[in-house]
Design brief:
The protein contains ten helices and ten strands. By secondary structure, the protein is an alpha+beta fold.
Length: 291
Amino acid sequence: MGIFRMPRNEWIKIDQGYLERINRRKYLLHHEQQFCIDSNASARFTIKELYEEIMTNQLSKCFPNMFSVKYGTFINHVTGCRYSLDSRRLNDAYMLNSLAENVEEDFYFMCPDGEGEYRLQAYSSCFPQGLHSATKMGLSVREIHQPVPGYESRLGNGVDKHFRRMESGGFVGRLNWSIQIDGDELFRPLAKNTGDPDNSGTIAHTALQRERINLETTYLRCEHHTLTCLPKSKTVMFCVRSYLTPIKRIREEGNGPALADACDSMPEKFGIYKRRPVWGDQLCEWLREDR
């Protein structure tokens, strides 16, 4: 699975361009809310737990120049906005919305169902890629990953065991990446960055047509995934932070051949899932060219 342990202070990150991206998230929360936040009644307690942890503890302690807590109010000194911390009187939508307005991580609440499964019961997600979260509500980890080639046979049992063994307060991370060929928009719930499974659960190579891609609008999209178990609810939080790097910058910095090798090394079915037949030949040839 390529996971690694990580310290708590790397859970939430603040990078250059924070305000611009937060303003984009606020726009999406207003205009595309059905894609960005939702919850089932069973997630009430765990939403409250995460809200208090992030808004009361994590942000003000790790970034005291940007955030503070005063008289039961959370203050974002970058945006100038204030948020109530009295979670007893706040509804789920307010808390999910507030999380999304202050951090760039997307949160997926995988709640234990009492039968050994962890199911998606809430989310706060403004920058999804190819994931319409509302259609995954109530599904288990395995069910959500059903379209991923090899997940059931190679990863399913290991992921399930890892979820059950996670210790409260511990943090583990992993990295994921893809090629995004149509611009720098991070909000892509219906994007076709991955191949579509057919009725048998496999992906048809013939359904993917090679395209002449525009390198000016092509990006390496990286996702930093963090897993942590909340101590009270025992919910496993799946957190995703997304980054885009122009493909031209990668070649300019001398990393083109390494990325081309990584693209070529994908197993066949996984390469199809990542839509490599669409962009692979042109992109890899260009990445290996002398500058």
